[in-house]
Amino acid sequence: MAIVAELVRDFGVRVGTVGDRFDELFKECRGRSWLSLENCVALIDAERFRLVDVNLAGQRSPDASTLYIPCAPIIARLRSLLTAAEVDQVQGHLQFPPTSVAMQPERRGTRA
What are the residue boundaries of the structural domains of the chain, listed by start? Predict the structure, then answer.
């Protein structure tokens, strides 16, 4: 979904324009780790969506107009948002500070 957001925000693409290729996008991304996605670029042309290694993307000249979306900045942004959320969840100030509680002697044979 972050790639879709990038298309809309940076390229001004309307979601309906590439909506029929979202299934391809999700299939390409499914099961990949963040580390592998970080080394990929999303290539979107009029016919299809491809997710290719960043080194291979530069070697091929596209046959048609193609949107080239590097995944590394997207993954870096998601990673920073994730770690920022983890830092914010630090335990806050306790209203009642911890104190030690004396142990009561064990009573045998008496019922409350």
Answer: 2-78
